[in-house]
Design goal:
Length: 453
């Protein structure tokens, strides 16, 4: 039994460890955020409220039907059935149904439905815009983690080179080729570089925490990302023209669509405001009846004279005998209402102008964003390839200095300075690399290309 249990426990432990250390891809981060981000959920709730408003405006086309009932208890002196006053405790009740339907009101309800539908589409585009902004923020944080991972690797490689050089220096010092002070300087340099490794590790932890918090994860300590195969960067890649990107973006960008829907909605608002000048024709109907506990039933006595034959008429007979029905039409023609309709029309025209300006503002903002994204991508590309050339030349200079240092022709200060120059150049190249990737992704994003690594 023990031979069976031990492997099972080991497998279960391995499986749970694998789950705890599961690495997140960029796509998984974006999809998770779309499902769990609270700000995005609030945007969706706003859209749901507007969807309910749209449904309600459609139901407003249906007739109104309302029922009513009441039951009363009366005490004190009152006129009795025999036409005399006396103390009487009585009970009475009534039931009724009323219906009302609008036959014409200047197509107000129809236009209200259209306006609400346009508002709903605008809200849905706001949700899409929030999703895209969230995806961009996650991509930025994701690339920042990748950058810090490579920065940590560079710091570790730098320390590794220094430790190897310490071993060579120890041999040279023992051989009398280099003074003992050189070894001390190398050890001090190693201590400084160990601190750089610690700082780089801390920066990586903070970058992981930033993304975990952006995803609203409950246990950010277990969070880590997978390292994707990054796109090949080459100088022959041509940058798309920003104006063509802008023209293309006008067709699908959610903020532009939302502005268009709101402009169309404001135009419907003007039609609604003008519709208030139209006559309103409604049809209504009513049915009702009542009951009184002390309502007698009259009839004829043996002599043929009117008389009370029952002190209280039956409920069914009262409801039938006291039934009341009504059916009619009502035409309301607006003549003067303190200028309210005219003010509503004027305000609706102002809303149209505001929506037009908002549309232009969104277009101008989008054009500026695309122009800036293009300029940033182009500058990042130039910075990356310049940094790549700088690293290549700095590597040659360090290799030459290292050979001279091993021969005792260069002191440790110059050697460390040249090594620092090399790894500084590599850090700058690394930063330029991820900036280039991010900037091109933003430009692709404005061109309708999904964000992927």
């Amino acid at each position: 039994m023990k031979k069976i249990l031990l492997p099972l426990i080991a497998i279960a432990f391995t499986f749970s460890s694998a789950n705890a250390q599961e690495k997140w891809s960029l796509e998984k981060c974006i999809n998770y955020a779309k499902e769990h981000n609270i700000d995005l959920q609030l945007r969706k709730l706003d859209a749901e409220v507007q969807a309910n408003n749209t449904k309600q405006s459609k139901f407003a086309l249906l007739p109104n039907l309302n029922g009513s009932t009441r039951y009363d208890f009366s005490y004190g002196r009152t006129l009795k059935a025999d036409n005399t006053y006396g103390d009487l405790n009585t009970q009475s009740g009534s039931v009724g149904l009323s219906a009302n339907v609008t036959l014409f009101e200047g197509f107000q309800k129809y236009n209200s439905i259209k306006k609400n539908e346009l508002d709903l589409q605008a809200y849905l585009q706001d949700v899409e815009k929030a999703k895209e902004d969230l995806a961009l923020n996650i991509t930025s944080s994701y690339l920042n983690i990748l950058f810090n991972k490579e920065l940590l690797y560079i710091a570790q490689e730098k320390l590794k080179v220094t430790k190897l050089q310490i071993k060579r220096t120890e041999a040279l010092v023992e051989a009398g080729t280099l003074p003992k002070g050189t070894l001390m300087e190398q050890n001090a340099q190693a201590a400084r570089e160990e601190l750089e490794v610690v700082n780089a590790s801390n920066d990586l932890d903070l970058a992981l925490l930033d993304l975990a918090q952006l995803l609203d994860l409950e246990k950010p300590a277990d969070f880590d990302i997978s390292v994707p195969e990054l796109p090949v960067l080459n100088a022959t890649r041509s940058m798309v023209d920003p104006e063509s990107v802008f023209i293309n973006a006008l067709e699908f960008r959610p903020e532009i669509k939302a502005a268009k829907y709101r402009l169309e909605s404001s135009e419907k608002g003007l039609i609604l405001a003008k519709g208030q000048r139209s006559p309103r024709l409604t049809m209504s109907g009513y049915w009702g009846s009542s009951y009184s506990k002390d309502f007698p039933e009259y009839g004829l006595d043996v002599n043929g004279d009117p008389a009370i034959i029952r002190e209280e008429m039956r409920l069914s007979d009262q409801l039938s005998n006291r039934e009341n029905k009504m059916f009619g039409f009502n035409l309301s023609i607006p003549i003067f209402n303190g200028g309210q309709v005219n003010r509503n029309i004027a305000n609706a025209k102002i809303d149209i102008n505001r929506s037009k300006l908002n549309m232009e503002n969104r277009k101008n903002g989008l054009r500026k964003e695309i122009q800036q994204a293009h300029a940033n991508a182009k500058a990042a590309m130039n910075r990356y390839f310049s940094s790549e050339t700088a690293v290549s030349s700095t590597e040659e200079a360090f290799r030459y200095t290292e050979e001279k240092f091993n021969l005792g022709l260069v002191n440790s200060v110059d050697y460390n300075q040249e090594k620092n120059n090399l790894f500084q150049a590599k850090s700058i190249l690394l930063q330029a690399k991820y900036e280039y990737i991010f900037r091109t992704k933003i430009l692709d994003f404005y061109n309708g290309i999904e964000i992927k690594l």
